[in-house]
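Name: Putative phospholipase d3
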Amino acid sequence: MKLQINVFDADDNDKKSTVLESNTNTAQGDDDFELWDQHSEMLREQQGPIWGHNAWCKPSCIPISVILILIVLVVLLPLLDHSNEKSANRLNDSTFLCQDSCNIQLVESIPEGLTYPAGSVAFGSTFEAWQTLLALATKSIDIASFYWTLRSADVVNHTSSWQGDQIFQQLLLAGTKRNISVRIAQSAPTQAQPNIDTEILIKRGAAQVRSVNFPRLLGGGVLHTKLWVVDRQHLYLGSANMDWRSLTQVKELGVLVTNCSCLAADVGKIFNVYWDMGEDSAQIPDKWPDSYGTKYNFNTPLRVNFNNSQFSSNIFLSSSPPPMSPAGREEDIDAIVKVIAHAEKFIHIAVMDYFPLTIYTPKIHFWPDIDNALRKAAIENKVSVKLLISWWSNSRPAEDYFLRSLEAISNTYQNIDIQIKRFVVPTSDDQAKIPFARVNHNKYMVTDNVAFVGTSNWSGDYFTDTAGIGFVMMDPEHGHPNGTESENLRLSLAALFDRDWNSAYAMDLIK
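Structure predicted for Putative phospholipase d3:
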């Protein structure tokens, strides 16, 4: 059977009047029944009557046939169920194939003043990635964001704000002069984050903007996603906010994907959730319409050929929070725990915050999901674990206690290896005047078989009531036969981690 992949057209979204309307297509089902009826009629014509004198099945054969059918059901069905359980416990080959020849690359922001030795691995910049997307856009630009401070005037006057200013002007031009539909789903503005940039875009007629009120919808949380979707063909997903500091003063990591309608259409469904929840009267439905669902998750990822078809990987996109993850979508926390559980040799993690707690709730709650998964991987599977956690002016001192608790089990038994370092971005007196800057804001994990790039910090709040996305790229079972190992994206991410782990900016935990 030939797989048909339907690509969502951005224009179609405007046709929905409410989030609760279902756009389920039943045409395929009708075609299946019609084919079944035609096939049955052909059998009847070719084989003649089933009953009667010349029938191929005599009445006396009925009891024997019934007994044989029952034996098959009793004996084979349990075996099939057991087979399904076994296959769910390993990294599966993809059921679905993307027909596009996609380009996928890592991009990062390196803060001014942070340098590496000559010959260190390096990648394209976040600024260049966003410029690429703006240049490629011909129809639509959809952006999901936490807050907006692209212009220097939004924060503090500083010479390093020029990249953010330029991106803002290009977005303004796209929406006013290039006839491109610009839609922005943002977290609801606050006094601390008034989002003046998007107000300007609205007043100039450059963009449609909707604010998602998470406290009203879920009782708390924010839209923490950082996502661009262009023409439903290209996308950026990563840690960089719509903030000039994310381009020159904060260390960021993301993924740029171009010419890949199957992935862009799928992540576009996540944007559609945000967009529809930005309506003033929106309510999260008990069941999301089928048009928001996905086929691609940990058990049935999408097989994607990329970078001139040299490589293929099994990819899916996870999301949080659970009430905003329609049918088929892997929840962010489930994706992270499964990636940890399936590591065989190493797990390397770089995140800004790491807490086995909810830290933004009125009452702090213990939330050990990731912590338990890492301990289990280290103890039971003898997987080497390294965590590179940020240290900056806004770090919470309590975090060290939990990190030391995790590291303390290292070497308690043979081959239990957990190592933790803090990453410190150097800061000059001038840079210290810039608020909420000079930090390693990365949110990724790489193992010996999976690369995970996300938009969430690792504390419970980000997975229970806050919106985020994970980009999960799994090695195919039989490796990359058509390409060289050095060009494998997962290995590139592992090399990036090693660069930072072994750098002068990585400090041992204070005992």
